[in-house]
Amino acid sequence: MQVAIPLFPRFTALDAVGPYEVLQRIPSIEVVFVGRRRGEVRTENGMLGVTCDATFGDVSAPDVVVVPGGIGTRVLIGDDTIRGWLQSVHPGTRFTTSVCTGALLLAGAGLLDGLTATTHWRAAQQLNELGARYVPERVVEHLPQRIISAAGVSSGIDMALRLVELLVDREAARAAQLLIEYDPRPPFDSGALAKADEATRARAAEFLQFRK
């Protein structure tokens, strides 16, 4: 079973690597990083590089697609290459999914028209403008349409565990969770916009100025 994770300049590392860490634990799943060309792709801050081992042309029939987000999604919404690839492979996938602002690329390809979906809270309005209906949930499923979206960054791990349950079975998902020792107990309870106070939101906005 092949899972394709498309990479592009200025993607968010955990959006891609979080699901990868879950999915690659399953012996029947092969994860491939795919892009416009083979070679290294740098994350949004330029500090980390991940290698694409295949081009979009090489991967024409993946079983699952996991589209990560990141600042780089903004310039790709109307990109013919990734839009065309998503439109061509989606009819044959078992699931086409997104993490964070990867949902903008699914929406740009017309795959979320009229559907509820989630993304990073900062991109909610943009997602709505592209034809989807944003909901502030961790993971949103449309199983008849074979579409799943996850909210910001770390939520991709939750979505990947759910994918393992759907693709294999619940025990496999539980085993993957154990293998990565995913038992989150964060020291703070500010991981969702609704839980963050004004001071926390202001500091987050300050940090975001450095990512433009």
TrEMBL record:
Listed GO biological process terms: regulation of DNA-templated transcription
InterPro entries: Class_I_gatase-like, DJ-1/PfpI, INH-QAR
Coiled-coil features, chain-numbered ranges: none
Annotated Gene3D superfamilies: 3.40.50.880
Residue span(s) of domain DJ-1/PfpI: 2-165
Cross-referenced PANTHER family: ARAC-FAMILY TRANSCRIPTIONAL REGULATOR, DJ-1_PFPI DOMAIN-CONTAINING PROTEIN
Protein name listed in UniProt: DJ-1/PfpI family protein
Organism annotation: Mycobacterium simiae
